[in-house]
Amino acid sequence: MIDLQYIIFIGYFLLVFLIGYLSMKWTKSEEDYWIAGSKLGWGIGGATMAATHTSAGTFIGTIGVIYSVGWSFGWVLITIPLAYWFMVAVLAPRFTAVKELTLPAFLQRRYQSKSARGVGGVIILIATVVYIQAQIVAGGLVANVVFGIEPLTGMIIFTIILLIYTLVGGMLAVVYTDFLQMIIMVVGTVVSVPLALIHFEGLSDLIQKVEFIKPLTFSWDGFPTVLLITLSLAFFLGSVATPEKVIRLYAMKNMKTIRRGILLAVVVVTGINLLVFILALAAMVLFPNLPTGDLAMPIIAKAVLPTFVGTIMLAAITSAMMSTVDSLLLVAGSALSEDIYQNMINKKASQKKRLQVARIGILIVGIVPLISIISGFAEGELIQFIVILFTAIMAAGFFTPVVGGVLWKRATKQGAIASMVGGVVTTGLWKAFGDPLVYPVLPGFIVSVLCYILFSLATKAPPESAWKPYFEKKNLKTK
Fold first, then answer.
1. DSSP class of residue 91?
2. Where in the cell is it found (predicted)?
3. What is the pLDDT of residues 234-263, one digit of tens each?
4. Are 261 and 117 in contact (CB under 8 A)?
5. Which of 106, 346, 449, 460 has the most CB atoms lying inside 10 A of its own CB?
C-alpha cells in the first residue's frame, strides 16, 4: 500500500518539476515570468484561476469547518460566484485597460505614487506569510496521514518542493502546473464522492445518519449570524481583489478570454465545494470523534477510499495547496523585487538583478511561515480560519483602492495609502482585541472606505493623467 502511494506521489512531483524546468526554458522576459506574457487562453487562464482559489482551505479547511460546525458555513461559499461576477462585470474591463506586471504597479500608475506601490508590496508580503502558513500546516497533515512521518518533517519537505519549482519557472511554471493540478482536483473529487457514498444507502441515508449523530449539522446554530455574514463579506471582498487573482486578469489575452476563463473557474470552484460538502458529511458519520476537523479529508482518503483512488485524492489535496502557494510566492516575489526593491531602493536595477531579488524574496516568504509554525503561531487554529485571516487582510487592504481606482476619478494617492494602511491595521487590531463574533474584515473594510473617501476629498484632486486611461471608452476592454 505504502509503495503504491510513494510511486504515485513521486511520479506526480517529478511531473511538476519537469513542467518547472520546461517553463524556465520558455521564459524569455520579465513579462513571461510575472504574467505569462499576457498570452493565456481561457482554458489555461480559467484553470489557473480555479486552482489558485481551491487550496487547502477547500479540501481540508472547508471540510474541517463543516465537520466541526455544520452546513451553515456552506452559505459563505455562495459569495464566491458573486465575487467572480463582480470581477468580470465591474473590475476587469477598466482594470485591464493598462496592463502591469503586479497589482502594486497598478496602484502606482493609477495614483501616481511610488509610496502607494511600496505600501501595497509590504501588505502583500505580510498577508502572504499568514496564508502560506495554513498551506504548510495542511501539507504536514497530509504527509503524516500518507507516509506516517512527523507533521513537521512533512511541512519541511512540502516547502522545499514548492520553492524549487516556483523559483525556477515563474508564472509559466505556475499556470501549467495549475492546469495539471486542476485536472487532478476535479477527477479526484468526482471519483471520491460516489466511493464514499458506497458506505451508505444513498445520500438520503447519509443525511439521516448525520442528523442522528450531529443534530445541529443542518441548522443555523453552528455559527452566530453576525459572524457568518462577516465571514461571507471576507470571502466576497477577498475573491475580488486579492493580488494572486487579479494578476491573472493581466495574464489572459483579452476580455472575451477573461469572461470564458472566469466562467470555467466558477463552475469548477462551485462544483468542488458542493462535492467536498458531501465528503464532510461522510466523515461525520464514519469518523465522529476526530481531534480536529482538519483531519477529516486526509482520513477519508486514507481509510475509506481504495488505495489508488485515496492516493489520487490526497494528491488532489496536495495539488490544491501547491497551486495556491506557488501563486502567492510569485506575487510575494514580485512585490519585493518590483514594488519595493526597484521602486524604493534601486531604481536602476537591471532585469537580471530584479529577478535575483525576486527569487530571494520567494525563498524568504516560503521559509518564514515554517519558522512561524515551529514557534507556535496560530497553533491549534483550524486551517480555514488562517486562510480567511489572509483573505481579510487582503480585502481590507486592496478592495477599496483597486475597485475605487477604476470607478471614482476623484480618488487620490493620499486616499489610497490611508485606505490600505487603515484597513489592514484595523483588521489586525480587531483580530487581536475585538469582538470575536464580528470577523475583522468588517471593521477593516469600513475604515478602509472611510479613509479612502475622506482623505481623497481632503486633498488636491488627481491630475487627469492618473485616472483617464481607466475611463476612456477606447481603452476599456470589452472584447
1. I
2. Cell membrane
3. 888 888 887 777 877 777 878 888 888 888
4. no
5. 106
